[in-house]
Amino acid sequence: MANAPHEAMHRIFQKYPGLFSRVSDMLGAAFPESTTANVICNDLTENQPLERRVDTLLRIETEHDGPFLLAVEAQGRRDPDKHASWAYYFSYLLAKYRLPTTLLVVCQDRATAEWAARPVRLGAAQWPVLTLHPLVAGPHNIPFVTDVAEARKDLALAALSAITHADNPDVGAILKSPSTALRDTPETIANPIIELTAQGLGNRPAAQQWRNLVAVDLSFYVSPLSEEIRDEGREEGRAEGQARSLLQMLELRGVDVPAEAREKIEGCRDTGLLDQWFSRAVTVTSAEDIFTEAGLRPDQA
To answer: Which PANTHER family match (predicted)?
Structure first.
């Protein structure tokens, strides 16, 4: 099943097709800059039970060199079956569209990238029919974008840099540059970068770093991620207020609150549960009773 980083690694090229020409130049292939690009159906299934879908498929137009197809695959781990799949994708697309076709594989760890980049000779050992040799982008060849001016100049590349280096201990330096660059970027441009970066980081520790940066540096945006963070902040603020009121109620009633109970109350962020505890605090004689059904009055049981 596709996960969030997997989706971000190929969808970023759907959103920013021009990114491929910059990336291909870094990879030593130097494809021309696109003039237009259209997402086309990624379903490569024939009238057979086996379903085959490339992650992202683009038809890219160029000014002088004509159109070509770009198939983008996000690869999270080594998979020996992929070589046969990638060869199928290439052959199918060539036969169907009769256009030059290339395959870009995007990885988030160096070992997988090195595996994917190795040329694979397909066919009999005595006479291989073709050699599979995709372009591979990953932490081994996508640069660290830590300069704010560079990030502002190419936000899509800055996002790809963060995604491919998601496991690097110094990824925070990469995340800071786009978050700073986005401060003076129109919201319609900034929002996809915010969301793709968050998606690409998945559930890694770097994802929380990005959320913190978004909350501070980009607090004026209304992207889904920033709204989620602000909603969490409002909910957390309500919970803190309820916890203070609960402790004040116990204090006014002369109920002793041991350190363990106080820590549990102050650490709770479930506003519904805090409401239950507050209702019980009106009658309990022990702070521990607010955490159990035993703390209910007879008419509440």
So the answer is: SLL0800 PROTEIN, SLL6017 PROTEIN
Pull the structure tokens for residue 201.
């980081």
HEC string of the chain equals CCCHHHHHHHHHHHHCCCHHHHHHHHCCCCCCCEEEEEECCCECCCCCCCCCECCEEEEEEECCCCCEEEEEEEECCCCCCHHHHHHHHHHHHHHHHCCCEEEEEEECCHHHHHHHHCCEEEEECCEEEEEECCEEECCCCCCCCCCHHHHHHCHHHHHHHHHHCCCCCCHHHHHHHHHHHHHHCCHHHHHHHHHHHHHHHCCCHHHHHHHHHHHHHCCCCCCHHHHHHHHHHHHHHHHHHHHHHHHHHHHHCCCCCCHHHHHHHHHCCCHHHHHHHHHHHCCCCCHHHHHCHHHCCHHHC
Per-residue pLDDT of the chain in tens (301 residues, 90 and over written 9): 457 788 888 888 888 888 888 888 888 888 888 888 888 887 766 655 556 788 899 999 988 888 999 999 999 999 988 998 899 899 889 889 999 999 999 999 999 999 999 999 988 777 788 889 999 999 999 999 999 999 989 999 999 999 999 999 888 888 988 888 888 888 788 888 888 888 888 888 888 888 878 776 555 455 565 556 555 555 555 677 778 878 877 886 788 899 888 889 988 888 788 888 877 887 888 888 888 764 443 344 3
Q: Token pair for residue 257? A: 């609150």
> What pTM does this model have?
0.64
- What one-letter code names the amino acid at 194? I
Do the beta carbons of residue 102 and residue 135 sit within 8 Å?
yes
Torsion sign, CA atoms 111, 117, 118, 120: positive
